[in-house]
Amino acid sequence: MELTRRRLIQAGLLTGAGLAANACGGGPSGKGSDSLAGKKMAIWVWDGCISMNVLKDGVAHFSQTKLTPSVIGGTFKQKLLTTMTSRAFLPSITGVKGEDMPFFKGTKADQFVDLNTLGADKLSSQYVSWKLKQATTKDGKLLGLPIDIGPCALFYRQDIFAKAGLPTEPKDVSAAMSTWDGYFDAGVKLKKAVPDSYLIDDGSAPFSYTVKQGTKLFIDENDRFVADQPHIRTAWDRAIKAMELGIVAPYAEPGSTDSNAAYNNGTAASSVGAAWHYLDLVQAAPKTKGKWRVAAMPGGPANFGGSFLSIPRDGGDHALAFEIITWLLSPQNEARTWVDNGNFPAAPASYSLPELTGPVPFFGGQKTIEIFAPAADKIPVAYEAPADAAVSAPFLSELKDVWAKKKDPEKAWNDAVSTAKQVAQREGVS
After folding, report:
1. For 259-316, what is each residue's pLDDT tens digit?
2. Which domain of life is it from (predicted)?
3. Are 1 and 396 in contact (CB under 8 A)?
4. Which contacts of 283-286 are long-range, i.e. CB under 8 A and separated by 24 or more positions?
5. How far, in Å, CA of 183 to CA of 176, rounded?
6. Domains of the chain by residue range
7. pLDDT digits 0-9 by tens, 106-128
8. pLDDT digits (tens, 9 = 90+) for 65-110
9. Is the dihedral of CA 11, 14, 15, 20 positive or negative?
10. Pairing mode, strands 152-157 and 40-45
11. 11-149+305-361 with 152-304+364-426: one CATH topology?
12. Cβ atoms 221, 227 nearer than 8 A
């Protein structure tokens, strides 16, 4: 179950008008050619999609155009779909969430520009290849350039690990808890030594991340339902084992007051999550600054999240839109988005920049790039079907019932498979 993401965004920059107004007051001078003068270019993003400071500077950098960013609230995917259908008020550039790209790639690819026709193929080495693949159709069209990725890690309270007699240094934790079994063993030891602390904050996390560590999800490349196969059952059993061992914290809705309290008072001694999860911790438990550390993900690398900038087919000047995208997503600007938003760069050249190589005070001065960069380089690639998210939802719902309501795990599994099959059939999956 993915945690609610709360981001550090300046209140004055939360609307397109406010953003544009602020951008006019500073930033680099415009670099556009005379042919750009007066061209109107709209860019749609959601809260936290990309650094507001980078967007503000983009408005100034392309000052000879009328570049207007808008932060779109509500269900971003649905609003973009509605606008595409009406062909009215389409932006020149739009964000596409990572979880939505399989849908657009599978059913709406003709509504986007193939960025390879604009020169993206010459920039492909700038970004991690597996992320580009997520935005590439079966016939080779590239529908977006990546804003960020979500390499996963283990976030843990060093002080609580020390109290329990567990390893405390990131390299030692990474070695001792390199497998899920090793991680669970640490959880049992923690529970005995510190009864009010739990190793796992989210009962569905072992399921979700085990699936993401594999090369098969819920639907295969031939559009066949495979969510009842051993790779999914293994992930399910892993989550159930953690609950049965008593190492999962009492249920709390992610992002709720109770969930935040668990990070503050030590009920949650660790949490697995993507690189951007650090901002959740900063926002939820600022007074724990310096007590957290980051280690390698138990079970191996995984990715959770990461979005794209794309160009709608009917949105305007494609060449100019591509120029703007490549500027916004340069290694330097992706590094700034990491600092401002916690979005880990998809451009490896960013990893050697000071914004990423320096010590992170919240993690006691640890250089977290030493954990995230190796993980980003080894992400397993899995086919994501357009209906994959919908088919996976019943499993998360049933795991929540096991965690929160003590539902029988076997009945929950059978109900999850049954419901998922019904969803798959409605989505045209065999």
Report:
1. 999 999 999 999 999 999 998 999 999 999 999 999 999 999 999 999 999 999 999 8
2. Bacteria
3. yes
4. 283/6, 283/7, 283/8, 284/6, 284/259, 284/260, 285/260
5. 8
6. 11-149+305-361, 152-304+364-426
7. 999 999 999 999 999 999 999 99
8. 999 999 999 999 999 999 999 888 899 999 999 999 999 999 999 9
9. positive
10. unpaired
11. yes
12. no
How much is the pTM?
Answer: 0.89
383: tokens are: 């086919």
Strand 145-146 versus strand 152-157 pairing type? unpaired
C-alpha distances (whole Å) from 425 to each of 211, 393, 416 are 22, 14, 14
Q: CA–CA separation, 365 vs 347, rounded Å?
A: 24
Taking the CB of residue 27, how many other CB atoms lie within 10 A of it?
Answer: 17
Q: CA angle, corner 188, sides to 187 and 191, nearest 5?
A: 85
**Whole-number Å distance between alpha carbons of 205 and 399:** 10
Amino acid sitting at position 18: G
> Nearest to residue 329, comparing CAs of 311, 315, 308, 312?
308
* CATH architecture assigned to 11-149+305-361: 3-Layer(aba) Sandwich (3.40)
What's the token pair of residue 276?
């951007």
Between CA 428 and CA 430, with CA 429 as vertex, the angle to 5 degrees is 115
Asked if residues 104 and 112 have their Cβ atoms less than 8 Å apart, the reply is yes
**Residue range 11-70, pLDDT digits in tens:** 222 333 333 333 333 333 344 444 555 689 999 999 999 999 999 999 999 999 999 999
Residues with Cβ within 8 Å of residue 282, at least 6 apart in sequence: 8, 289, 362
Please say whether the beta carbons of 304 and 343 come within 8 A: no
Confidence band, pLDDT 50/70/90 cuts, at residue 231: very high
Query: The domain at 152-304+364-426 falls in which architecture?
Result: 3-Layer(aba) Sandwich (3.40)
Q: How far apart are CA 223 and CA 245, in angstroms?
A: 36
Hunting for tokens 């500073």 — which residue is that?
A: 26
